[in-house]
Amino acid sequence: MKIAIIGYGKMGKTIESLSEKMDFQVTEIYDENNPFLTCKKSTADVAIDFTTPQLAATHIKHATDLQLPLVMGTTGWYEHFNEVRQYVNQNNGSLFYATNFSIGVNLFFALNRNLAKWMNTQPSYQPRMVEIHHTEKKDAPSGTAITLAEQTIEKMDRLEGYTLTDGFESEKIENKSLPIMALREPDVPGTHTLIYENEIDKIEITHEAKGRLGFAQGAISAARFLIGKQGIFNMNDLLKF
Predict the structure, then answer these.
(1) pTM of the shown model
(2) For residue 136, what pLDDT is reported?
(3) Does domain 103-208 have CATH number 3.40.50.720?
(4) What is the architecture of the domain spanning 2-101+213-239?
(5) Contact status, residue 149 vs residue 127, Cβ threshold 8 Å
(6) Is 103-208 the same fold as 2-101+213-239?
(7) Residue-range domain boundaries for the chain
(8) How far apart are CA 90 and CA 212, in angstroms?
(9) Which of the residues 59, 61, 62, 137 is marked catalytic?
(10) How far apart are the C-alpha atoms of 154 and 131, rounded to whole Å?
């Protein structure tokens, strides 16, 4: 498998470091000095993009024009999703996107859906979320936090949306909004905690990433999955959830 890396930051370098262990070749690298949009033809089998939300939609369209299957690891671009989906489908493109490529996080998603469903029958518990990422993280709340929030809102009748907040003291369940505190600290790959609390007790579920390795391995697995396919796919397709 020949991979083009788009974005040569920490994630791009982590993906490159796995080439021998996971049996693939990095044949192209695109960064600020060699922008992906200048690529006229790619010899890679698939590309993996960890750049910025501002470039994501444009990169997806460009990869589609090149007929280059693309794994989009960047989050924070989903307001363009309908436009991107239409473009990819109309032009026979191949896109794999996820708010998080970690296998553990996607198992955590499944756990969160079930807990939210059970908590829907327990109105005394007030739900809230805390997410912590590294200081270079551009979007807040993170894509993973938004996925968790959307799952929770879907399962709980008393919630209608989510709110980014600096603290929980004034947040009440009557607001019908799930409060999310997004913290940014140095060298934190990602921690997400769902909290349910009433006057009697508190229930928490947490996923804490120990490093970037899980995200990189998941993205590479997605790249293998995407080769030879047309359309739009996500982690549910890869993991057969």
Answers:
(1) 0.77
(2) 77
(3) no
(4) 3-Layer(aba) Sandwich (3.40)
(5) no
(6) no
(7) 2-101+213-239, 103-208
(8) 34
(9) 137
(10) 19
137 noted as active-site residue = yes
Q: Beta-carbon neighbour count of residue 180 at 10 Å?
A: 23
Give residue 137's pLDDT band: very low, low, confident or very high (50, 70, 90). Answer: confident
pLDDT in tens, 47-76: 999 999 999 999 999 999 999 999 999 988
Residue 173, pLDDT score: 47
Task: Note the pLDDT tens digit of each residue in 36-53.
Answer: 999 999 999 999 999 999
Least Cα distance to 105 among 164, 56, 146, 53 occurs for 146
Token output for 207:
């996923």
| Local structure of residue 92 (DSSP, 8 states) | T
Q: Of 59, 61, 62, 133, which is the active-site residue?
A: 133
CB 212 within 8 A of CB 10: yes
Type of residue numbered 197: E
Taking only the tens place, the pLDDT of each residue in 142-177 is 888 999 999 999 999 999 999 988 776 655 545 689
N- to C-terminal Cα distance for the chain?
25
